[in-house]
Amino acid sequence: MTMRAPSSDLPLMLEEVSILAGEHHILREISLVLAAGAPTILVGPNGSGKSTLIRAAMGLIAPTRGRVTFGGREGVPPARRAIVFQRPVMLRRSAAGNLHYALGVAGVPRRARKARTDELLALVGLSGRGDRPARKMSGGEQQRLALARALAKDPDILFLDEPTASLDPAATKAMEEIISGIAARGIKVVMATHDLGEARRLAGEIVLMHRGRIVEIAGAKTFFTQPKTEDARRFIAGELLV
User: Fold this and answer.
1) In whole angstroms, how large is the CA radius of gyration of the chain?
2) What is the pTM of this model?
3) What φ, ψ does residue 190 adopt, rounded to 5°?
4) Residues 160-182: what's their mean pLDDT?
């Protein structure tokens, strides 16, 4: 399979990024480089800042301090970045209609949308279901459709915020296989999860967060076999971080 050319939005760099709500730090002095390659998986307890980091990297939240750069540039519109939330909102249209709309927003010519819609439905295992009302699909199907909709803009980097958190094991397995396939196409995947098993299965790189800070960054194998910090050792062992 042909890999994509390096993205102009990559490396995506967060430099000493802090985000405050009043006097409360949601993120505190985050420095992180997201480069092309295998998925980067964010792990950590609830409230550790994973979702906020993803939103800041996507460009949805402006840092209170620090800066975010995309290929060395600031203030880059998210034309080649996409995000899927834990509970995506489906348009009141068919599955294909959702994709037609997304392709139109992405600037895909009308004459090319039908073929691209069929391609995206096939990519996420929804071939033959384009006529189904999106809001009547199962949770797993809606999440796969949300992935297809995000891919409509042909992103260089795809952010996933706990996309399998509300899915059953079969739907989770299907989503993980699709995510692995997306990464194999050269799209940089950055994903938050609370599931360490999922992190083991998908990650090339692990970022452990706690209390708005990055505690540890390591390759997945190193993180799980030779954690460097006590917090990482405790988290892998299933102990609570407080």
Assistant:
1) 18
2) 0.93
3) -125, 115
4) 95
In the chain, where are the structural domains located?
Answer: 12-89+159-236
Which structure tokens are listed for 126? Answer: 């929804």
Yes or no: domain 12-89+159-236 corresponds to CATH 3.40.190.10:
no
C-alpha of 89 from chain center: 16
CB 31 within 8 Å of CB 14: yes
- b/e per residue, 123-139, with b = 16+ CB within 10 A? bbbbeebbeeebeebee
- Joined tokens for residue 87: 């509970």
Residue that wins the pLDDT comparison between 4 and 197: 197
What confidence tens digit (pLDDT) does each residue in 50-63 have? 999 999 999 999 99
Phi, psi of 22 (to 5 degrees): 65, -120
Q: Which residues contact 102 (CB under 8 A, 6 or more apart)?
A: 149, 150, 152, 153
